[in-house]
């Protein structure tokens, strides 16, 4: 049945749509942190639809809030009219952002959010020059593909903006890898200065960065890097955009926004994924003078619609009511220490923060990316009832991003499967 659906998928959907697994899964039911496929098999979900079902599945408080909005009959009339829930959610996000005089614009996805940030920054600065991090991913719109620094996801090379890439986001394969944290930061800042002085005309609009690279393999630079970089940017009026599409809403445990680990307030932040718990929502929160930089009318037909607003408001309430930021920190530490203790020779690095945990797989005793092992791990964990993610520049990084509601027992269950699957993969490939 899946074979037949896969053949039909291949026939009418683009060849470049990424699918996981040799035999891709069709999910037909989901509850709490588990999903069931069309053959009736249930899996513990450690990827949550790419960190999207952040609260888990079928959460009564969220479903009820969405249903209540649907029952009003106001599914979507238009964002041309006043929408109370949109104003209220924007007020909350503006306050949470810590950005002075912040304003919010809602979109339907992370790509649109980043595209909007690019449009605002380039308009505000009257420049189409942008800086991005090596190994970054910012979406699949024409503008965001252009600044993505990861070959595997750079689907178009015809860029509407001029981009230069700087070091810093991905330490494991950085030429500065062996340096101390402080020296690493100094080297990355020196690289930024060098790029600004030698590769740009100086009038750069913004630097866009993920506090922890998501698609790039859950790689986090040392805390403080982005504060040091922002000091350089501030000297030239260059804006700093933090892409919080994966790192927002407390998922990193220690902070509500990933960028807060760096002790700096960005000029803009973009968000999506986890805020909707599966509903399509994204947005930009930024300095009011930057957000207001457009001298024309603009709306997003669906961005900020009442159903998405109802769901997102319920998600924010749920995060606060259940202290999920603290849960992310505790469960993340449980996974990190359990995986480090396993000490499997295939694992070159266990890294991450909160419930963004990455395992970079290598050929034992080297740093050579082990793509075969990553592929095998996906199948071995699936066979044991666990869904995980994969990514990284070389497609050799396992990514764990379970719902933020993960329990201690579920973390332990996933951990045991991962350790067992690593041993099986090592044995199979030795
Ligand atoms: N930014 C980051 C950091 C992401 O991880 C993603 C998606 O994976 C995006 C932007 C694009 O978001 P979307 O797929 O909702 O357009």
From TrEMBL:
Pfam families linked to this entry: Aminotran_3 (PF00202)
Cofactor(s) the protein needs: pyridoxal 5'-phosphate
InterPro entries: Aminotrans_3, PyrdxlP-dep_Trfase, PyrdxlP-dep_Trfase_major, PyrdxlP-dep_Trfase_small
Annotated EC: 2.6.1.44
Keyword terms, alphabetized: Aminotransferase, Antibiotic biosynthesis, Pyridoxal phosphate, Transferase
Molecular-function GO term, any one: transaminase activity
Protein name: alanine--glyoxylate transaminase
